[in-house]
Amino acid sequence: MSESARPDIGSGGPGRGGGRRRFIGVGVGPGDPELVTFKAARVLRTAGVILVPATEASADGPGRAERIIADVVPDGAARIRRIPFSMAQRRGVGARRADSWRASADAAVEAFGSGCRTVAFATVGDPAVFSTFSYLRATLARRMPDVDYELVPGITAMQALAAASTTPLAEGREILALVPATVGPDRLGRLLDVADSAAIYKGGRTLPEVLRALRERGRRAVIGTDVSLPDQRLVDLDEIDADETLPYFSAVLTTPERTITGGRI
Amino acid sequence: MSESARPDIGSGGPGRGGGRRRFIGVGVGPGDPELVTFKAARVLRTAGVILVPATEASADGPGRAERIIADVVPDGAARIRRIPFSMAQRRGVGARRADSWRASADAAVEAFGSGCRTVAFATVGDPAVFSTFSYLRATLARRMPDVDYELVPGITAMQALAAASTTPLAEGREILALVPATVGPDRLGRLLDVADSAAIYKGGRTLPEVLRALRERGRRAVIGTDVSLPDQRLVDLDEIDADETLPYFSAVLTTPERTITGGRI
Lengths: 265, 265
What we know:
The structure is a homodimer. Chain A is α/β, with parallel strands linked by helices. The first copy, chain A, has two domains: 21-155, Cobalt-precorrin-4 Transmethylase, domain 1, CATH 3.40.1010; 158-264, Methyltransferase, Cobalt-precorrin-4 Transmethylase, Domain 2. Chain A contains eight helices and twelve strands. Chain A has helices at 38-46, 64-72, 87-90, 94-113, 133-143, 157-164, 185-194, 207-216, and strands at residues 21-27, 49-54, 80-84, 118-123, 147-152, 176-180, 197-201, 221-225, 233-236, 250-254, 259-260, 263-264. Chain A has a five-stranded parallel sheet with strand order 3-2-4-1-5, sandwiched between helices. In chain A, strand 8 and strand 9 form a beta hairpin. The interface between A and B is large, with 71 and 71 residues.
């Protein structure tokens, strides 16, 4: 955990790692900069270029990943490249999403071309969990087949929500599932019939049908928005209206009623 | 992320947090000390006492959580208390498990009694994911009803395995499940019929039936042991014998075959 490593600012010469070019998906956690790992911080501090998603909602200001990085890598601003990801793209408009991957790949190609050996792509949460990293990787791999890919895990919204509500996600012989609300009510229902706990992502506009599925099964749940940040909101399923929708950075967590050795958890 | 905070070494007087006593489950990640978060490190550096599980396998030496802490909190040794957790207890011998919780609760009661305001319980992975923290909490709550409970999330073995094998856990409309092998083959099979990806924990001695369930469904999978540590082993499902068993710190990850915009991920 040395803090002495210096950024790989492009000089054209081969950098660390025997000259191999590395594209690293870095999970920066749910929002609180303290929930970044030492490894993520080291990679961000040493990468030649850091790509960050910039959404329409953030207009010209920094998005969530960039705000986290500003805290962890205070001198990193000059190495950050904002990639436009509109909220519409996140909702699955295929052609526009491909545009975003292409813009990210363009930025990576440019960074490698200018001599960087290491390019980081910062992602909220974990780069292996509902992240755009793997799409971007596929896009870049077709243009630069000789790049190595790495992942640095990060704390997910689900884990932050469990911590904030002091709710165990899974214990003993329980099954925990992560499911995007976009699977639709039928698959969600089938899943809830076999999983004890579930973290439901991307609830946003489909929240009413998610809540209906939970209520039909007599499930208890907590809904978290901007969890781990100062404006965090935690709401119980009982307190939420049937037709409410949620901001993008929200998650729903349902867990079983537990009575362990006499104490409700 | 101030590094200046000092340990809350018991003096009998009220400490930070207005004198409330805090019992904090701290996730220290899968094994690599770099996969600890800044928050976990801060809590461990400032807690008056740090409880760590000590298994039979580690005999009188440090267990995995303690080895991680030794790296992150080099001057913390005097504040560490080893709690005996035998492997047999982990496998579910009820009375013995209750003994472990009681020993942990005893150590916490003693620490609070000697004036500590903050006691940490370090857990490999995340304290909300198949951790003993919630059992311990229930045991302690009956003895000291006025203690506050907090969780600090940590990187799970599943996330480390995904990173080590550069395998996305879930993307798009996929469902990811975490399941202990101890649910048995029937429930595991039902789950694999609805979940796209699954991380199977506690495979150990039941690995043969887990592998059978995966092979019956034509699933691909990677098996990781001691992931993120120098002696990490990653083995493909194809390369493993049908009757093999696994050490305790192993996980099985099955993901769908993916072909995104032309590239296999």
